[in-house]
Amino acid sequence: MTGVTLRNVRKSFGTVEVIKNVSLEIKKGEFGVFVGPSGCGKSTLLRMIAGLEETTSGSIAIEGEDVTHVEPARRGVAMVFQSYALYPHLNVFENMAFSLRLARASREKTHQMVGEAARILKLEDHLHKKPSQLSGGQRQRVAIGRAIVRQPKVFLFDEPLSNLDAELRVQMRLELARLHRRIGATMIYVTHDQVEAMTLADKIFVLRDGEVQQSGGPIELYDDPDNRFVGGFIGSPAMNFLNGRIVSRRGKTVTIALENADGQTLEARIGQDAVGEGRTVVVGVRPEHLELCEDGVKVGVEMAEDLGGVSYLHTRTTDGTEIVVERRGARDNLNDRTVSLRAAPENVLVFDPEGRRLR
Amino acid sequence: MAMLHNRRKHVAIAASLVAPFVATFCLVFLWPAIRMVELSFTAGPLIGEGTWVGLANYKRLLTDNLFYTSLKNNGYFVVLTVVPTTALALAIALAINRLSGRLQAAMLALFFLPYILPVSVVTMIWTWMLDFQFGVLQPVLAFFTGKPVPVFKNPYWVMPMIAVVTIWWTNGFNVLLFIAGLRNIPQELYEAAALDGATKRQQFFRVTWPLLWPVTALVLTLQLILQLKIFDQVYLMSGGGPFNSSYVLLLMVYREAFQLNHGGYASAVALILFVIIMVVSVLQFQVLKIGGRR
């Protein structure tokens, strides 16, 4: 069953088009994440689903019902804001009960529903407190509680964890994942943090300049990006990119001479027959797919970041292009040494100069 | 020892920094105030020594009909101005707050403009506009009453008219305070309320009004103090008449002190007004604070 469906949605502020023809679908009960750099339109898109921004053209449907021109309160959505947007003059109980009070719900119903939300979020001891007396994490939970009480068809989260410190962010991320399992509602989550996107999402939508670049499961996007932007955005440390030229082709295996590394070569797999010798390409390799070897692409190690289990070698090719290599369990110090790198052909991704993937 | 020394130096520096203010304050406020209290217990003129008469001035006040008339008029003026100007300022601020950009700035300037005028200019403008024979507002009054009204010579019209002029003159500042208060309320609260199902009306009563309450309490208190001190507009437009129907306490002080040279008696009236303002404003602010906490 469908949860949220967007068809050819556009949004303009004056002459500036910030959302350009977005169509997407999030199934009922799915956790969808909009991710992208700041200014990509992800928050605007979320606010359009909430009804806080007008939709210039196209249609938005929630559980099969067209809500494009329906006011926010009647869309069956609840939103958690980045700033929490708690009512500062009301205590935690009244903050969560706000929508019920507006709907003139009975005393018992109010107490039962707020009590239930408070129990899920472990806020029972704080119900009488004002938001200013709570910590960041607690405020965040109150904001989520306010959303739960409304029993919406869709939960919308606008960068809800970005005001929390790193440790709390990890903790709240897990709590959100648990909450999603427990209540099973459709959720849409906006973040610029690809780690949050990877860990929370059933389905990620990577946005850039108001367009969906690619959508799919986290691992799908990680392993099989459609373009250079998605490849570079998903994954930390980011994918390494090197310019090159195809020098020979045997079956599906091509040999690429790297312009950034004095013409040293890497092998890659490409299915399309049309991609032949002489073609300029961009090669993308993830740090964990590079390994040290006897004979390969020569790079100088500038610095190693040893984190214990894993270490990242920051290396440079002869023309100064940076390449990050991930090593596991290594104990030797390679600072200022020259090493050789190789990668298995199936792990070397090839893009055309415009950034489109060549498969 | 070094700590002690430093601390003494610290205190000395602090004292030398506040000394100019303390000295000026004592010279031009505290000392005259004490002298005034002293004066109120004498039958002295404004300048020079007077004989000590104890509470005689205050006893005389209790039997002075003009004092009661003035007190009543002060109260009437407060009723006519404080709450109406606050309500009006809030309404105007809410309207201006919905505008944006240059239009908002222009409207704000328009409402603030009267506030920068000196009181004599304000009263000149309104005396001219309300002139019995040539006033541009007389046709408007005639439309409602059937005939022109000499507003500053009519005991029923004079106080409300002075109140209108006062509100027109001072409202801009209150609008400014309310606008500042409204801008302090994050937009997201309204978005959250809209998602929670609040209508515009409910958003006002459940979000704007409670969050704006500290500003409202401040405006009400400032207005109360200001309007109890009414003098200039009455003096310039009606002179306290007709039949003392716009006579107020400060006008009484002025007449007793500067026209009749009854320094002692004028001091007693002034002191009573001072006590009234202090008690009423402290009381009001406390009541409003409790009202806001509820």
From TrEMBL, chain A:
<dbReference type="InterPro" id="IPR008995">
    <property type="entry name" value="Mo/tungstate-bd_C_term_dom"/>
</dbReference>
<keyword id="KW-1003">Cell membrane</keyword>
<dbReference type="InterPro" id="IPR047641">
    <property type="entry name" value="ABC_transpr_MalK/UgpC-like"/>
</dbReference>
<keyword id="KW-0472">Membrane</keyword>
<keyword id="KW-0813">Transport</keyword>
<protein>
    <submittedName>
        <fullName>ABC transporter ATP-binding protein</fullName>
    </submittedName>
</protein>
<dbReference type="InterPro" id="IPR017871">
    <property type="entry name" value="ABC_transporter-like_CS"/>
</dbReference>
<dbReference type="InterPro" id="IPR040582">
    <property type="entry name" value="OB_MalK-like"/>
</dbReference>
<dbReference type="InterPro" id="IPR015855">
    <property type="entry name" value="ABC_transpr_MalK-like"/>
</dbReference>
<keyword id="KW-0067">ATP-binding</keyword>
<dbReference type="Pfam" id="PF17912">
    <property type="entry name" value="OB_MalK"/>
</dbReference>
<dbReference type="InterPro" id="IPR003593">
    <property type="entry name" value="AAA+_ATPase"/>
</dbReference>
<dbReference type="Pfam" id="PF00005">
    <property type="entry name" value="ABC_tran"/>
</dbReference>
<comment type="similarity">
    <text>Belongs to the ABC transporter superfamily.</text>
</comment>
<keyword id="KW-0997">Cell inner membrane</keyword>
<keyword id="KW-0547">Nucleotide-binding</keyword>
<feature type="domain" description="ABC transporter">
    <location>
        <begin position="4"/>
        <end position="234"/>
    </location>
</feature>
<dbReference type="InterPro" id="IPR027417">
    <property type="entry name" value="P-loop_NTPase"/>
</dbReference>
<dbReference type="InterPro" id="IPR012340">
    <property type="entry name" value="NA-bd_OB-fold"/>
</dbReference>
<dbReference type="InterPro" id="IPR003439">
    <property type="entry name" value="ABC_transporter-like_ATP-bd"/>
</dbReference>
<dbReference type="GO" id="GO:0005524">
    <property type="term" value="F:ATP binding"/>
</dbReference>
